[in-house]
Design a protein that fits this description.
Strand order of the largest sheet: 2-1-5-4-3
Low-confidence stretches: none
Largest sheet: 5 strands, antiparallel
Distance between the termini: 9 Å
Number of domains: 1
Order of helices and strands: EHEHHEEHHHE
Number of helices: 6
Number of strands: 5
Length: 143
Amino acid sequence: MGVLFDYFAAPSDEVAASVIDGGPAAHGFTTVPAKGLDPAVVLGKLEELLTGRAFDEVVVDPRAGGGVAVEHGGELMVLTVTDELRDGLAAADGLGEVAVRWAGIEELGGSDAEVLEDVLGQLKELAATAVEKDERLYCWVCV
């Protein structure tokens, strides 16, 4: 068993925090499960690929994996995702090429680019809907 990361959109930090028990899917949110794709480092490097924003800038952004809810000593968390990544995903083209480049980062060493392209497609759809609804992206983490 590993760490589970489920991405979802919500209108506020408070609403996002309310899903900590059970996760976003159990509370009726559209969810993108992404085992192994943490919102700080792995998605931070994706943000760098999509937006050109330097990874060093991404990781110091307070919304790059910032906690809005933490329970059970960190075994359950709801973390923020940057608005820049949301916007970059919503506007992304050429997901196959992005997936190949993303698969090449150290943290994903040897990941299948086709699998990552599928996840990127789901994240793009989630992000586009979030932009339309003026919502933000979040990650529910279960250790």
